[in-house]
Amino acid sequence: MTIHEFALILSGVSEVTEEAANVLYEAGCDDGSFASRDGVAFIMFDREAASLREAIETAIANVRSTVFGVLRVETDDANQVTKINAELLGSVSGT
Hints:
Elements (H helix, E strand, L loop, with lengths): L1 E10 L6 H9 L5 E6 L2 E10 L2 H13 L4 E6 L3 H16 L2
Antiparallel strand pairs: 1-3, 1-4, 2-3
């Protein structure tokens, strides 16, 4: 397994409070660092998985198991992220 680095930008929240971080940590985001910058809340992950896609999809599932959502993914692997962000956009817009 490989450790994959990426960020999930959270939707519906502009700051990760201590309470929010605890909820996300308990939901399985214990391999992430929580942060906010310029009104944007995000989680930086170092997640071990067989593939980047698997790492991202499990992290999204962890976040969505809480009251939080995921707006988009950011990482250096542009091809994977473009596909996943298109899927996220579709789930947000209802298509």
